[in-house]
Amino acid sequence: MRTSTAALLAALLPTSALLVTACGDDGGSSEAASDTRDVTLVLDWTPNTNHGGIYAADAAGFYDEVGIDLEIIQPGQTGALQAVATGNAEFGISVQESLVPAQTQGVPVVSVAAIVQHNTSSLLALAESGIDGPGDLAGHRYGGFGGQLETALISKLVECAGADPDDVDYVEVGNTDYRVGLETGAFDFVWIFDGWDKIRLEQAGVDVSTVSFIDHVDCIPDWYTPMIVTSTDRIDDDQALVADFMAATARGYQLAIDDPTAAADALLDAAPELDADLVRASAEFLAGQYALDAPRWGHQDADTWTTFVDFLVDSGLLDQQPDDVASLYTNEFLPE
């Protein structure tokens, strides 16, 4: 594996059009000239346990076995979708809320696997805040990225609980230290990932309460975040590469499910700066989430895609329905 470093990207439903023009794709860099093909994967963030199956696959030699020399890079300012769409990377990690508007605007990207089957996001507050359910969010201040999706989801949760969404205050804090913000009163609740932030705070002895999105799918949609994406050009030009990459990646995630310690060790070898105790606990948590309720790792369900797209349209976050929701994703390259 070759590894390089770039800047972080925080992206929750881009508010401006993702105006990229897919440049000509050479159809894979070296499949005809060499048995080994150079492949670049752009992450969605810094290395973390959502990527555990990829690092596990690389450490176990699964990519080598299919003739892939994988380079894993962190996203620059343009993010994974643009890198994939322009042919600067073969694969990327993204989220449904970014891919849907991008493809609707003509960006040739498609999801080829759901990394985690169900949304593991929650709204987290200090236990002493009195926030125990969606209705309790009213009268409190949310600290986030200022994204439209954040506001839409919180408003819907509060509305479903019979409270007034206008009674929630919002403050844009970006990628800050949530614990400090909560404990200093800068905000009362934040959006976190159960498999990372919640574990980190609990390991630090912070007494927290959460409103888990997955507990309220009667009000808001479940959706895929994160997922693996590639370009439609890549699929058209080199299906063998996509199939080989996905076969090795699926083996890696199955390894992460069966042996989360191995996945944690692989991630820590690649990113030794991470908190080892947090990584190991997170890997254990995600081992039970990667393929939960699914026939196989990576599977994407039509209802999940349709329900989320409908929510975006109904909330005014998407101008129009995609012509064909099924064009946003494919299970074709997942091994049986």
Automatic annotation (TrEMBL):
Positions of the SsuA/THI5-like domain: 48-263
GO biological process assignments:
thiamine biosynthetic process
Task: Tell me the Pfam families matching this sequence.
Answer: NMT1 (PF09084)
Keyword Lyase set for record: no
User: Which Gene3D superfamilies does this one have?
Assistant: Periplasmic binding protein-like II
InterPro entries xref list: NMT1/THI5, SsuA/THI5
State the UniProt keywords alphabetically: Signal
Q: Which residue positions does the secretion signal occupy?
A: 1-22
Indicate what this protein is called per its UniProt record.
Answer: ABC transporter substrate-binding protein
